Amino acid sequence: MINTYQIYLISDSTGETLDRIFLALKAQFVNIEYKVHSYSFTRTQNQILKILDDAKKNNNSIILYTIVDNNLAKYLANKSDEKKIPCFGVLGNLILSFSKLLNQKASHQPSGQHALNDEYYRRIEAIQFTMNHDDGNLTNEIEKSDIILLGVSRTSKTPTSIYLANKGYKTSNIPLVNEKSIPEKLKKLPNMNCIVGLTAEPERLVDIRKNRLTNLKEIENTKYVDIETIRYEIEEAKKTFKKYRWPVIDVTRKSVEETAASIIKIYEIYNAK
Q: Mean per-residue pLDDT for 200-207?
């Protein structure tokens, strides 16, 4: 019988940072089952006591936290110790080390990374732009894009675009049916922006497209999921990318985050020219 670990993620902000850290941590330990309990905007001792009471009721409880207020963090650590619940602060030692290295006292301000500064508004603008320029929309103003993605159906264009937008990059994506589906602006000026082609192995696309049709409860479109048709689509896409000298990323075994990281590197190289 596999034990299920009760993971309590306690944050004094949105909890986004802690969620990502736990996902990275979880990936290092396979064949372990977890039940995650997330608590965001935890900023009082009463909130902490209620969480610990619940954690104490369960077996195999583990607490991870990101709380920048020193007094509250110590309170959580001490109370967890009293209740014999393993408790780990994710940012505490890192903030202390940075403070010593930079010779500056930390502000200990919750949600500091979410301050409404220029970077925040630039990211919001990028998200709005990307949503408006999804799936080949508004190609008449495509030159305003930071990044342009092209690829056949189901090569992760939209989720990758949204991820890039959250990083502050205005991203357009265009479904590549054939060369005629490429906007004339890109054909005439193929280096006008950072343009990246996305591709994948045909066998993987068959599975993804079949799942999409199932989720949409559509009658199976044999051409859409036909392996030979997909092979042809991929080969034609590769020829197009080669013709215009656009860099290509195979997303078959890449997560959206990994694909986006590769695209950002290409973007940085493009802008360094």
A: 95
